[in-house]
Write a structure and sequence with these properties.
Blueprint: H1 2-26, E1 36-39, E2 46-49, E3 52-57, E4 64-65, H2 66-71, E5 73-74, E6 79-86, E7 91-95, E8 107-108, E9 113-118, E10 147-148, E11 154-157, E12 163-168, E13 172-181, E14 185-187, E15 190-201, E16 211-217, E17 221-229, E18 234-243, E19 245-255
Parallel strand pairs: 10-12
Antiparallel strand pairs: 1-2, 1-5, 3-9, 4-8, 6-7, 6-9, 11-19, 12-18, 13-17, 13-19, 14-15, 15-16, 15-18
Length: about 260
């Protein structure tokens, strides 16, 4: 296994060297020069380091002290900081040889990807609570539930999920529904299929009104109909259940008060 890792690593290094050579041939005549190198344990190799932050894969055993990694860099004293992204916490952890007491990256593991920052482009000094790191993308805003109005009905289909929310700007709304039952089950000695939709007002909170519609039939196929519900105005949640329902569609329209 170790031999296979060594062969794979050599191949990757070789490909990287070819790409670097091709890019250098077409790039600026002024190229950065390495200022240090790090000796990685087997199956690693010596890796050149350039001014700034170098992204490399480590081959030190699990639990290796960050100080040990820094000491593997020559010349000594050139490392300013080492960074590793913690995906679970969505933050960067850092180690600074000049301020180990303020560092939160104290150990590394086999095949960790880290940034080694060496003299030439001083990085920010890490702190124990908030090391400087690239800013994570802002979370996406929660989509606003659609609004049912008398002039613009909204449509929900089975592919949207069995539970959805919407707003209605009147005290009543109409539901035009279509559903297909693909199989029947025995209910009270009869073979039946059913289509059930429950509407629960969420705004204002604690509103006791609840509309539950149940359609049942004793044959396989498509059925449709119309219901009305006094569950507005405000936000309403609905949930679809049923027996053997293959697909469904709801068109919700606000009714004048």
């Amino acid at each position: 296994m170790k031999r296979e890792l060594s062969i794979g690593l050599v191949a990757v290094v070789a490909v990287a060297a070819v790409v670097a050579a091709l890019l250098g041939a077409h790039g600026s005549a002024v190229r950065a020069q390495p200022v240090a190198s790090i000796a990685l344990p087997e199956p690693g190799a010596s890796v050149q380091l350039y001014p700034g932050c170098n992204n490399i894969g480590l081959t030190f055993p699990d639990g290796t002290a960050s100080e040990t990694v820094v000491q593997a860099v020559t010349p000594a004293g050139v490392v300013q900081a080492m960074w590793r992204h913690n995906a679970a916490l969505n933050k960067f952890e850092g180690f600074s040889p000049a301020a180990p007491q303020a560092s939160d990256l104290l150990t590394v593991n086999f095949l960790d990807a880290v940034w080694l920052c060496v003299a030439g482009a001083p990085p920010p000094v890490p702190t124990a609570t908030s090391p400087a790191a690239p800013t994570a993308p802002a979370p996406m805003a929660t989509p606003t539930p659609p609004t049912a109005t008398s002039g613009a009905p909204i449509v929900f289909e089975s592919g949207d999920g069995k539970e959805q929310r919407f707003y209605v700007d009147t005290s009543r709304f109409r539901v035009d529904w279509t559903a297909r039952v693909s199989e029947l089950e025995e209910v009270g000695g009869l073979m039946m299929g059913s289509f059930v939709v429950s509407f629960l007002p969420l705004d204002p909170p604690g509103d006791p009104r609840l509309c539950i519609f149940l359609e049942g039939w004793d044959y396989i196929g498509v059925n449709s109909g119309t219901w009305e519900c006094d569950a507005g105005p405000g936000e309403v949640k609905f949930e679809v259940t049923g027996t053997g329902v293959e697909w469904w569609r709801l068109e919700i329209t606000a009714l004048p008060d």
